[in-house]
Amino acid sequence: MLQFLLHCQGQDPKHYEEWQALLEWLMSAFPKSLHTDEQELAEEEEGEEQLARRHVEAKIAEDKNYPKKLLQAVMERPMSEKSFLALEQLAFVDLSEIDDALHIWLNRSDLHPLLQYRVLQILNRRGSQGLIKFQRGGEEVEIELDQVPLKPTDFPSQIQDVLERIEQHTGIHNPTLFYFAQELWYQFIMGVYGTMNYRSMLSEEDSILDVWAAALHTIVAETLQDDQSDEEIRNLYGITDSLRLRYEQAYRSMKQFISIGIKS
Question: Which domain of life is it from (predicted)?
């Protein structure tokens, strides 16, 4: 989605700066790995984490107020690359008050849903456990902190299945559409994690995954000005009249998520 927003014209320049900063840490959090060896990638990530931890520990040894400065940097507005770097460093600060501050910050009504998700990831990496309740997208959600996915492959199989459906129809003939569908889908999933929409993907019958795949395909096709019509896309995924209402609801949910990015 952020890739899309950065190509939109006529927005406030400040928005572009915030979107770019948000995109950069998203790419850092969910890198498109070129490694085919998963063990090699895991070792590389572990090495980077150890370096980051040592850096934070050294900073705290020099300045006991460094954790407080990190929190101030994280919570400042507007969002910036400095904010996200500070948030990343909080994963390595061994102070319980950091958890308390992040819990409170999660309930801020103006916090972007993707930033909310990053805070959940940081709490997970800090070893936080237990159920946390806060507002997401106008509803109260309950999330087990130690179950928050840290990378795309950590999400349940149903989430991956939506992309597999799109790949079947676009992977060979329209790889660009599939690439953007992947980017938007994982960002959308992070944005709605724990909500009713997310839970429905995991608990309802298989046809609901066709609904989400069709809605995602439609939105990306519209963005890329693809020639396929809405009706053609719905037929690809078997969206019958009985599923039409759910399809339109899924479509509106994704469009609303994108609009939050534009207004943030």
Answer: Bacteria
